[in-house]
């Protein structure tokens, strides 16, 4: 078993298809298939169930994936540590972000990291918020910016910022009040984040607390679907400013603030990994600095640092 086989296995696991994995890895499919067979033979287990529609991991394959992520990342971090003399801060840093956070933070962060740490390669993993913590615990990413994260064994949480939740509407939707309450929107068609989602739980609690129903027409796991739905007039939604700042700025989406405290907290989440390299700590620090600049310049509105 070698690191190349590990990387091949991870790619096949994530894509669920040998042909796609081979194309991504820039190798011939028979060669990839052979490497996976050799890995299975050495371990003495089947890692995938094959079918005409692709491959599906076995229980053993899922278990190996969790460990392989950590092993490969530790190898990469070790290389970066050993070459620290040539490049004081270098290596690959992976960050998992909720779609709404990524829309505001990803590009400015990439720009800042490129300027300050040219030897660091930044990977942004854009995911539904319910999947962020799992990516950290499995070693798939170095850290995540996670909304309303609860304490989990093995996870280190650092308070990052607070975002006010807003009612986002199609530009032609008529709500005269500048600040709304839950009663004002009980009959407004809504498209909301899919459960399990902590922001959705906050919304459900707000309606439940007032013993009011709401008109749910659809659910979606990311703002990449929620925002276009609002923009096209299908429904309203409830998200932070970061999720729709471009559309609010160009006037295709309008917003209303609530007349009560309605917010979510974002935490920096990582494992207590002694093998973490300096690049990860530098990028974490740059996340905070970049967010602070965006807030100070009133680009990231209705948000404050913790």
Major β-sheet annotation: 9 strands, mixed
> Beta fraction of the residues?
25-35%
The number of helical segments is 10
- The structure class reads alpha/beta
CA-atom Rg in angstroms: 22 Å
Protein model, in words:
Helix content is 42%, strand content 25%. It contains 10 helices and 13 strands. It is globular, with a radius of gyration of 22 Å.
Quick structural summary:
With 306 residues, the chain is of the alpha/beta class. It has helices at 3-15, 18-25, 29-43, 59-82, 99-116, 132-137, 198-209, 223-231, 245-250, 278-296, and strands spanning 48-51, 54-57, 91-98, 120-127, 143-147, 155-170, 179-180, 190-193, 216-220, 237-240, 253-258, 263-271, 303-305.
Descriptive terms for the model:
single chain; 13 strands; 306 residues; two-stranded antiparallel sheet; alpha/beta; nine-stranded mixed beta sheet; 10 helices
Secondary structure layout:
Blueprint: H1 3-15, H2 18-25, H3 29-43, E1 48-51, E2 54-57, H4 59-82, E3 91-98, H5 99-116, E4 120-127, H6 132-137, E5 143-147, E6 155-170, E7 179-180, E8 190-193, H7 198-209, E9 216-220, H8 223-231, E10 237-240, H9 245-250, E11 253-258, E12 263-271, H10 278-296, E13 303-305
Parallel strand pairs: 3-4, 3-5, 7-11, 8-9
Antiparallel strand pairs: 1-2, 5-12, 6-10, 6-11, 6-12, 6-13
């Amino acid at each position: 078993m070698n690191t190349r086989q590990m990387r091949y296995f991870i790619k096949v696991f994530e894509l669920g298809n040998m042909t796609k994995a081979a194309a991504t890895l820039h190798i011939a499919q028979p060669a990839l298939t052979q490497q996976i067979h050799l890995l299975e033979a050495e371990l003495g287990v089947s890692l995938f169930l094959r079918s005409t529609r692709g491959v599906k991991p076995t229980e053993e394959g899922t278990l190996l994936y969790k460990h392989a992520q950590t092993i490969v990342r530790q190898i990469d971090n070790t290389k970066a540590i050993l070459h620290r003399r040539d490049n004081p801060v270098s290596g690959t840093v992976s960050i998992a972000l909720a779609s709404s956070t990524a829309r505001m933070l990803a590009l400015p962060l990439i720009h800042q990291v490129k300027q300050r740490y040219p030897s660091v390669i930044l990977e942004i993993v854009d995911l539904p918020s319910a999947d962020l913590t799992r990516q950290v615990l499995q070693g798939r990413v170095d850290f995540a910016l996670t909304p309303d994260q609860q304490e989990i064994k093995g996870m280190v949480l650092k308070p990052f910022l607070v975002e006010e939740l807003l009612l986002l509407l199609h530009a032609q939707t008529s709500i005269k009040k500048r600040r709304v309450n839950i009663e004002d929107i009980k009959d407004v068609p809504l498209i909301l984040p899919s459960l399990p989602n902590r922001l959705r739980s906050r919304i459900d609690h707000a309606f439940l607390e007032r013993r009011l129903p709401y008109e749910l027409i659809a659910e979606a796991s990311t703002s990449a679907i929620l925002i276009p739905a609002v923009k096209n007039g299908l429904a309203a939604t409830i998200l932070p400013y970061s999720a729709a700042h471009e559309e609010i700025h160009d006037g295709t989406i309008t917003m209303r603030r609530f007349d009560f405290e309605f917010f979510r907290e974002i935490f920096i989440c990582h494992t207590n990994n002694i093998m973490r390299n300096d690049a990860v700590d530098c990028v974490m620090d740059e996340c905070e600095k970049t967010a602070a600049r965006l807030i100070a310049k009133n680009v990231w509105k209705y948000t404050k640092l913790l």
